[in-house]
Amino acid sequence: MRNPKLPLLQLGDVIKTHPREGHWGCAVVVWLRKRCPEFGHLCLIAITPTIFRHDFVADDLRDVAFSILEYEQGISLFPGDSRSRRVTCLGWYDASSNPNLDVVGSVDPRKFFTGSTRFIIGDGTKKSWPLCGRISSNLGSEAVFAWRTLHDPVLLASDLEAAEASHWAMMDSLKQEARAKRNARQPN
User: Fold this and answer.
1) Which domain holds residue 130?
2) Each residue's pLDDT tens digit, 130-147
3) What global pTM score does this model have?
């Protein structure tokens, strides 16, 4: 039996996100793009900096002044490397809704989004936005990171340190595994 089609998101839909236990946020559909030969229906989604520590309802959004999250994204190319770039949290997504994320209301996105709606795929610079694919259940994790930077910096730093150590240990293990495979292929 075929799965029923998921409903398409609409302009202004406010999506309730829940990317981390104990943290809920909002994302807003700020633009729609109709199906074309190369792509299906797409929508431009803005992650907002709004974070709740409780599961919220539409009435909780009454006094929210929506905006688009911008933050410094850390980049590390090798152990000990530390650099960053400014990120605007906008991306092109498949316009099919995610059954795990509720639409809790609608807003006029023109009140806070005046950026480019031209369909140019890129990295968020020069009025181009990344192509993000289907909407994942962890949509909005950037907002939780930004919130924790302000409200939970000590625990966040500890979590990041552990994640970085785990990442580099995995990378080292992969290098050793690749080296062992190369050595096994070489004739004696």
Assistant:
1) 13-151
2) 999 999 999 999 999 999
3) 0.81
